[in-house]
């Protein structure tokens, strides 16, 4: 791809203007990031400007970024005009050259559009070192008033790759020491003494409680196996068909009715016993475990 001569001059000017800032950003562990103007698709420019301001505000809150917007650099060069002259269409090669010209590693670009009643924002995060987009999000809302909250939630997902990128950046010795996890303190002698003089787990209670829990689970399964719900559903369907003057799909005899009542009684008994045994067994197991925390004097 061939570019006009003045594009090369533009790149040289940008590299010189931002070179000193790039080195200071590296020292502060910040990633220089260019935020391009958002494209408008079937939406008024005022709405696009509001969305762009919200995106810029969210990005500015991230301590890992040194944000450069198109407005920041339009006073030095007509960025959008030069992008069009170079045939820049947000392709990987074009974005990589733009980021390199500004001394930036990251480029964020996207568009705002309307799809029916929905306002849709699409954002992409381009890494010039990897020459590819490393993150993408779509934010969709019907009410612009709800948009800031939805954007804040999505930005957490959008900027996740930056946490990894910053960790990979070189750090000074002071920063490494400051961010090192604290050394765990040695247990105090008083704590060791209390533990050594404490009781032990009462395995008899724990075992008895576990057996009760198992019996309770078995009782609940037995109650479920009585199939009272199935019989009740069949009886309800039979009654509804009779009331509507229709022939029921399945007959329901007096014997079936008595079987349903028996299943109901069994199910209620099984559920009660199961719940009682499981609650009691859990309490007994907890009691047995708490025996280990008693001190010798208790």
Task: Pick out the low-confidence regions.
Answer: 1-26, 164-171, 189-197
The CATH architecture name of the largest domain reads: 3-Layer(aba) Sandwich
Shape: elongated
Number of strands: 6
Report the CATH C-level class of the largest domain.
Answer: Alpha Beta
User: How much helicity do the residues have?
Assistant: 55-70%
Distance linking N and C termini: 86 Å
List the helices and strands and how they pair.
Layout: H1 5-27, E1 31-35, E2 39-41, H2 45-60, E3 65-69, H3 70-73, H4 79-85, H5 92-101, E4 106-115, E5 118-127, E6 132-141, H6 147-158, H7 160-168, H8 173-179, H9 189-196, H10 203-225, H11 228-243, H12 254-290
Parallel strand pairs: 1-3, 1-4, 2-4
Antiparallel strand pairs: 4-5, 5-6
Helix pairs in contact: 2-6, 10-12, 11-12
Summarize this entry quickly.
The chain has 298 residues and is of the alpha/beta class.
Keywords:
298 residues; alpha/beta; 2 domains; 6 strands; disordered N terminus
If you had to describe this structure to a student in words, what would you say it looks like?
A hairpin with a 2-residue loop joins strand 4 and strand 5 (118-127). It is built from twelve helices and six strands. It has two domains: 5-172, 3-Layer(aba) Sandwich (Rossmann fold); 198-293. The longest helix has 37 residues, at 254-290. Helices cover 58% and strands 14% of the residues. Strands 1, 2, 3, 4, 5 and 6 form a six-stranded mixed sheet that branches. Residues 1-26, 164-171 and 189-197 have low confidence and may be disordered. With 298 residues, it is an alpha/beta fold. The protein starts with a helix and ends in an 8-residue tail after the last helix.
